Amino acid sequence: MSGLSFRRLAFMLLFAFLVWSSSTGTCHARRGKHWRHSRAASASLSKKKAKSHGSGSHHHGGSKSKSKAPSPPKQEVTPPPPEKKGPETFNVLDFGAKGDGDTDDTKAFQSAWASACKVEASTIVVPSEYVFLVGPISFSGPYCEANIVFQLDGTIIAPTNAKAWGSGLLWWIEFTKLKGITIRGNGVIDGKGSVWWQDSPFDDPVDDEAKLIIPLNRTAEENSPFPINSKLGSKMPSTKPTALRFYGSSNVTVTGITIQNSPQCHLKFDNCMEVSVYEMSVSSPGDSVNTDGIHLQNSKDVLIHSTNLACGDDCVSIQTGCSNVYIHNVNCGPGHGISIGGLGRDGTKACVSNITVRDIIMHNTMNGVRIKTWQGGSGSVQGVLFSNIQVSEVELPIVIDQFYCDKGKCKNQTSAVALSGITYEKIKGTYTVKPVHFACSDNLPCMDVTLTGIELKPLQERYHMYDPFCWQTFGELTTPTVPPIDCLQIGKPSSNRIQSDHDSC
Q: What is the pLDDT of residues 461-484, one digit of tens each?
């Protein structure tokens, strides 16, 4: 081989070696780049992992795999709980009420109710230091949400213009067909009743027990005219409204407020269940006619306590359809006492049961505790307890009157509401006319009347005074009484009457 050929062969071999060497280095460089990270790159990757997944092991080696490494399990992100909000409030001022005592705020109250009605446990606010003139208004269900609160801290007054009442209404402010309604606060509901009393002071029925109260000079006391006239001099309707009425509602609470000067009843519950009234007041003059404090009708499971009632008729009136009524720690006076009835009017059937009245203070009232029924009625009153009643200057502390008649003359009838299981215990204090008056039906005598711890002393004032009176009243005296109530017939009537469908409930 020539020298030239040898040099060419050597050059070609060297070139081939260089090409092979370059190719091999490139491959190793790629592998090295994949497996051996620079220190800076490793640190950067570690930081990224730490941010994304927290602390964990670093990847240091191994062959590259075609399958992806399993991803860490995804943590379910739980959204934060919704922020708890307080009950929504609807201030009548925000709905256009002026609260100046002259502007008619009825529409503003209606609008506030329309909004509150849609929200469960909402609150309507009637703020303090404002006087709101509101005409007849109904806060109505049954499609309202439950547990609405009417926060009354201001004053609501009734219109004294006869035009606002039309031909007459049975109520002024009404809550109807609601579940869970609370009226609370330090405010006042003022019925401006003097314009009604002044217009017809002699048109209303007169409490029948007034016939037992005869002044010493035998002249009837005259009602003095009321000084306030209705605006525009127009006569108010003969139908007088109740100031605050609840109808067809359950879980009802009234607390804190004052109701005053109602044209007729101050607070009425009709067809209601689970009623609670406490720490509130009723305030009207003793000569305001037919202004009952609290009137119950067809209502069950009623609790009334820690309340002051001053009015011109019964402090509490319990009518037909009432059961499970518990009244305690109540101040009554002026007024006509606490009464069951009148029942059975116009031949109707009346049913009253399980009534407890205890721990009561009565001052300067016509009656103390009373049951009154009309002749001709049917049904029964059963299971009544009057206990721990303190009377002071009360004209007739204990009364059963089954010949009740609040008009000029009533027809004598044989049927009556049957009375049984009536207990009087610890009734003490002073009277000014008669300590006990039991006038029971000829055909349906009162049965199981029990007297215990009766101590009633006369206080001579301006009326003729009488001894205890009993007619067709049967029961027992478990202790001596003051004065002696010898007229009560011990035991049961000789006829041993069996309860019939006529008086069953």
A: 789 999 999 999 999 999 999 999
**Any catalytic annotation for residue 100?**
no
| DSSP-assigned beta bridge partners for residue 329 | none
CA–CA–CA angle 392, 395, 398 (5° rounding)? 90
Has 503 been annotated as catalytic?
no
In the set 204, 313, 314, 401, the catalytic residue is 313
Which of these is catalytic: 336, 401, 437, 503?
Answer: 336
Three-state SS for 189? strand
Helix (H) or strand (E) holding 385: strand 378-394
- Tokens coding 184: 């609370």
Question: Which tokens hold the place of 442?
Answer: 């000829």
Query: Among 401, 389, 466, which Cα is nearest to 432's?
Result: 466
Angle at the Cα of 158 (from 155 to 164), degrees rounded to 5? 150
What 3 state SS string does 397-456 have? EEEEECCCCCCCCCCCCCCCCEEEEEEEEEEEEEECCCCEEEECCCCCCEEEEEEEEEEE
Q: Which two tokens stand for residue 42?
A: 């490793």
Backbone phi, then psi, for 323, in 5-degree steps?
-150, 160
The C-alpha angle with vertex 300 and arms to 298 and 303, in degrees rounded to 5, equals 125
pLDDT in tens, 326-365: 999 999 999 999 999 999 999 999 999 999 999 999 999 9
